[in-house]
Write a structure and sequence with these properties.
The protein contains seven helices and six strands. By secondary structure, it is of the alpha+beta class. The structure holds zinc ion (2 copies).
């Protein structure tokens, strides 16, 4: 945790920004909830728990700055809400997401599955790819499990 904060501090410094206490509080929340895909509002509520003096506008500006510096990625899963996702350190590409249409859970695939697709696109469309976003929409393993169990009502009718 402290190591990663230090590295983020250096990233900010190299772009002439300081890791102010307000920015640090926001970064800590993102690190603590790394896999949660928080909205700006979610981040703000968590920051407020520890630092009630920090306002939503400050958190929002920090998130925009971190996005600009590519420390976090801003994503949208089609529900109109921007979410903030810490970029994996040293990752050349943004990780992929599995979004469940039943429960809304978001799982991550850290492996890059698009290497060959990228090579093909670069060649055929003469396009230099820098990054990509890949989101799969479907039913997660947890919800698939739920669907297999017969309901109580169903048993009663069958008898
Ligand atoms: Zn993610
Ligand atoms: Zn689900």
């Amino acid at each position: 945790m402290e190591e990663r904060i230090n590295r983020i501090k250096k990233q900010l410094h190299s772009s002439s920004y300081k890791l102010t206490p307000q920015r640090e509080a926001t970064v800590r929340v993102l690190l603590e909830h790394e896999e949660d895909h928080l909205s700006a509002e979610d981040v703000y509520l968590l920051v407020k728990e520890k630092s009630p003096e920090i306002g939503l506008a400050t958190v929002y500006r920090t998130l925009e700055l971190l996005t600009e510096l590519k420390i976090v990625d801003k994503i949208n899963f089609g529900d109109g809400v921007s979410r903030y996702d810490l970029r994996q350190e040293g990752a050349a590409h943004f990780h992929h997401h599995l979004v469940c249409m039943e429960c809304g859970a978001v799982d991550e695939i850290q492996e890059d599955l698009l290497g060959e697709v990228e090579m093909d696109v670069e060649k055929r469309w003469n396009f230099k790819i820098k990054d990509h976003r890949l989101t799969f929409h479907g039913i997660c393993y947890r919800c698939q499990g739920k669907q297999e169990k017969p309901s109580v009502n169903h048993d009663a009718v069958e008898r």
